[in-house]
Amino acid sequence: MLPKKRETSNDLALKLWYSFGTIAALLQEIVSVYPALSPPTLLASAATRACNALALLQTVAAHPLTRTPFLKARIPIFVFPFLNTTSEAKSFEHLRVTSLGVIGALAKAEDTKVVKFLLKNEVIPLCLRIMGTGSELSKTVATFIVQKIMRDEVGLQHICATPECFFQVASVLANMVIALTEQPSTRLLKHVICCYLRLTDDPRAYTAMQTHLPEALRNGTFDNCLRDDPAAMHFLQQLLDKLAGPASVVPRPGPDPAAGGAPHPAPGHGPGGSHGGPSQAGPSHMH
Question: For this UniProt entry, which residues form the secretion signal (predicted)?
Fold first, then answer.
């Protein structure tokens, strides 16, 4: 019943955080399914219960008055085991998407403290793996998280600090572009483009992107895909225009392309083909 109140109760996060024993009870719900993760024996009903708890933790992560204590208590650590799973079963995918929703709610704040926490706990490698192997929805949310981390100067510098880290990110993005030529997704492509656009704000990455940007982004392959999304088309054109400039020019950061908010699942992505029943679990509207 509690997740039903997420959209109508502005102080739900405060009630969850400060009422005695509530967070502990939610963590018990989450920890109770750990044994079913490996080997993968998780039932849809158990996944839905865990997703209900995760949806409420997302509410706490998203609220400005509970985000900091939530982070200081290191509660996001409890969702990482779900992000590490690789089973393609619907119950596992739903857990991954809802767990990504918790991280996405934190990342959306564009708070340097949050970014440092996520970097320290190696969220980027987890997201990169999901970006390479997940469903369209989980890829979209994971790419949004990486995009938001890069929006912070600390995050951008972390990714561009070493050639190894930069090319790991660039390789995943390039593979996603290749996959998107076969199975287009406007919302996923938009986040990929925004990641590339932000990378060009770093002089080293800017130079690399001039020669390593996937050809499909240059030759009009996605014109039809982006026809109905003028903002995404604008970001792509902005990216191409920046890369057409001289390498010696250090670009200045542009406007936040992620201002529209994080992606959220459409109805029908819950375990067993539903949206988790009454829980409505999963990344909520982060607009």
Answer: none
Model-level pTM greater than 0.90?
no
User: What one-letter code names the amino acid at 220?
Assistant: G
Q: Where are the alpha helices (DSSP H) in 63-185?
A: 67-72, 80-83, 90-107, 112-120, 123-133, 136-151, 153-160, 163-182
Cα maximum dimension of the chain? 59
Rg of the chain (C-alpha set): 19
Mean pLDDT of the chain: 87
Q: Contact at 8 Å (CB) between 63 and 13?
A: yes
Tell me, what DSSP letter sits at residue 162?
S
Q: How far apart are CA 234 and CA 196, in angstroms?
A: 13
Name residues whose C-beta falls within 8 Å of residue 171's C-beta, 6 or more positions apart in sequence: none
Residues 260 and 258: their CA atoms lie apart, in Å, by 5
Chain centroid to Cα 94, Å, comes to: 14
DSSP line for 19-68: STTHHHHHHHHHHTTGGGTTTT---HHHHHHHHHHHHHHHHHHHSTTTHH
The token duo for 109 is 């704040």
Quick one: tokens of 76? 């996001």
pLDDT in tens, 259-272: 444 444 433 334 33
How far is 213 from 90, CA to CA, in rounded Å? 34
